[in-house]
């Protein structure tokens, strides 16, 4: 059982001229393994800033508050250490990795996180199984990471990482954006499979309610103006689908 605790998190973005622009205005959120939390909010409300701050992106400066995973100070860790501590951030490896195949990348990541290389015999099967479940061509494993990946392939690759790396906490930022309906279903099923193990906590960040039809969150947090302004169960997402964010804007 793991707990990610975000307490009064305040974050500014570093502008090119060196100035700090405040974005997160005190975020409080607790996520336990097995729970799925959705953060929903309008464009520009700071949802990605929250994800990037937990990921350790250098563009964002933490000006107050704390983030801990099972009591460990996440904000004091390097990006690599955060991954090894069990945090999975879907935007963490968005770049092309020239000359590194998907298969090698996943094996290296798995080795780094577990502290030992996965057994060759069982690993090949696990990799094949994960790809089959995501309806991916086995040849995909030999392609270079993110090189010429379509939007759908990028997302499938993310979910593959999720299934194979078995993180304690997974943060998925706009995983639904740019997916056609078939890809959305395959990706959602992947998330739900990992969810069923009960060993991973999820933070699903989204602008639209679409993905929440496939992945029913246990908790929904409405995010406006850099903070959470309303919390509820999955019925809150249904309400947003009907009436939008308007009534929450005044609370920011
Ligand atoms: P969301 O993911 O909810 O759409 P973001 O976290 O991407 O919101 O952005 C929140 C706010 O921070 C926006 O007003 C955005 O313009 C601003 N912002 C984010 N990154 C930068 C940046 N590098 N330079 C200037 N403003 C930024
Ligand atoms: Mg945005
Ligand atoms: Mg965003």
UniProtKB/TrEMBL annotation:
Q: Does the keyword Transferase apply?
A: no
Lipid metabolism in keyword set: no
Q: Name one Pfam family in it.
A: ABC_tran
Task: List the CDD domains.
Answer: ABC_FeS_Assembly (cd03217)
**What stretch or stretches form a coiled coil here?**
none
Q: Which GO terms describe its molecular function?
A: ATP binding; ATP hydrolysis activity
Start and end residues of each ABC transporter domain? 4-250
Top-level taxon of origin:
Bacteria
**SMART domains registered for this protein in UniProt:** AAA (SM00382)
Keywords (alphabetical) are: ATP-binding, Nucleotide-binding
InterPro entries given for it? AAA+_ATPase (IPR003593), ABC_transporter-like_ATP-bd (IPR003439), FeS-cluster_ATPase_SufC (IPR010230), P-loop_NTPase (IPR027417)
Family assignment? Belongs to the ABC transporter superfamily. Ycf16 family.
- Put simply, this protein is called ABC transporter ATP-binding protein
């Amino acid at each position: 059982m793991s707990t990610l605790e975000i307490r009064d998190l305040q974050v500014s973005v570093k502008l090119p001229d060196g100035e700090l622009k405040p974005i997160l205005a005190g975020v409080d959120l607790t996520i336990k393994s097995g729970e799925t939390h959705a953060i929903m909010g309008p464009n520009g409300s700071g949802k990605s800033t929250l994800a990037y701050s937990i990921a350790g992106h250098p563009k964002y400066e933490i000006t107050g508050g704390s983030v801990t995973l099972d009591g460990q100070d996440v904000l004091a860790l390097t990006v690599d250490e955060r991954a090894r501590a069990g945090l999975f951030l879907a935007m963490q490896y968005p770049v092309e990795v020239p000359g590194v195949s998907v298969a090698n990348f996943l094996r290296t990541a798995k080795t780094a996180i577990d502290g030992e290389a996965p057994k060759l015999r069982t690993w090949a099967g696990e990799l094949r199984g994960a790809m089959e479940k995501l309806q991916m061509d086995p040849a995909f494993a030999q392609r270079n990471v993110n090189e010429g990946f379509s939007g759908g392939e990028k997302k499938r690759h993310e979910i593959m990482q999720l299934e194979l790396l078995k993180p304690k906490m997974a943060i998925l930022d706009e995983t639904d954006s740019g997916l056609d309906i078939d890809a959305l279903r395959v990706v959602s099923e992947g998330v739900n499979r990992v969810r069923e193990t009960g060993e991973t906590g999820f933070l699903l960040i989204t602008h639209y309610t679409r993905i929440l039809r496939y992945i029913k969150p246990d908790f929904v947090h409405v995010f406006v103006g850099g903070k959470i302004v309303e919390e509820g169960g999955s019925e809150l997402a249904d309400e947003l689908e009907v009436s939008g964010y308007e009534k929450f804007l005044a609370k920011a």
